[in-house]
Amino acid sequence: MLRIASLVPSLTELAAALGLGPLMVARTGFCVHPAEIVKDIAKVGGTKDVNLAKLRRLAPTHVLVNVDENRLDTVQAIEGWPAAERPQIVVTHPLGPQDNLALIDQLADVFGQVEGVAARAAALRREIEDELARTEPARFAPRRVLYLIWRDPWMTVARDTYIARMLARVNWQTLPAVEGGPRGAARYPMVHGDEPWLAEVQQVLLSSEPYAFGPQHLEAARALCPNATARIVDGELIGWYGPRAVAGLRRLRELAAGRE
C-alpha cells in the first residue's frame, strides 16, 4: 500500500487535490493546507529540518521533495536508508507558473494507479491552462517591483525563481535584474539598502511568508525604495505552486488592474 510523505507545503496541497490525502502519512509543520486533511497527518519537522528518525518510523513508500525548499543532505540521508526501507523520492523543481503543468503530470505518472488521480489531474491541468492563457504579460503595463521575503537582513528573489516568474506573468519585473542559478542562496539575494537600482523600484511587495510581514513594516519598506509604493501581498498565492496557482494568477490580475 502507498504511504506518502510530503516535505513541501505546496506538494502536500497538490497531493490532497489529486485525492491522495488518505495515503499521506507525514508532512512538515508548514504543510497547513487543506486544514481538514493535514490535521490527521503526522508532522516530521520543517522543510529544512526534517526529523528523519520520525519520518523513517512512519515507513513512507514515497517522499515528495523540492530542490528549493528542502536540503540536499536531507534527500541524501533518505537515499542512504537500507534498501528494504528506502522510499521512492519524487524530486520537483517548478521554476515558473507554466511548470505547474509538468508538475501535475509528474505526480499523475507516479500515482496514476490510484483511483481518481488521473481525472483530478486532468481537471486541475485545464484550470491552470485557462488561467495562464488569461495572464499573458503583453496584456499588462510593465512595472518594476521589489518582492521582499525577509528582513534583518532584507531578502528578495532572483528573476529565475518561481515567484519572480509568477510576477512576470502580469509584466511585473523584479529587481535586481539578476538570476540565481539552479540552486543555492543566490536565488534569494540580500538587499543592503544602498543599491542604486532601489530608486527605480515602483512598488515594493512585502510577502506574508516566509517572513510574516505586516502593516508595521510598510514604512521601512517605503524608506528602502523612496520612489515606490508598498503593499502586503499573500505569499501563498504568489509563491505556492500546484492548485494555489489558480487563485494566485487570478489575484495577480486583480492587483495589476488596480483592484484591491
Taken as a percent bin, the fraction of beta residues is 15-25%
CATH architectural label of the largest domain: 3-Layer(aba) Sandwich
- Rg, nearest Å: 19 Å
Structural class of the helices, strands and pairings? alpha/beta
Parts with pLDDT < 50 across at least 5 consecutive residues: none
CATH class category of the largest domain: Alpha Beta
Total count of strands: 11
Strand order of the largest sheet: 3-2-1-4-5
Largest sheet geometry = 5 strands, parallel
Give the N-terminus to C-terminus distance in angstroms: 46 Å
Q: Tally the helices.
A: 10
CATH homologous superfamily of the largest domain?
Nitrogenase molybdenum iron protein domain
Overview of this protein structure:
- This protein is α/β, with parallel strands linked by helices and 260 residues long.
- The protein folds into two domains: 4-133, Nitrogenase molybdenum iron protein domain (Rossmann fold), CATH 3.40.50; 138-256, Rossmann fold.
- It has ten helices and eleven strands.
- The strands form three sheets. Strands 3-2-1-4-5 form a five-stranded parallel beta sheet, with helices on both faces. A four-stranded parallel beta sheet has the order 8-6-10-11.
- α2 links the parallel β2 and β3 (42-43).
- It is globular and about 60 Å long.
- It starts with a strand and ends with a helix.
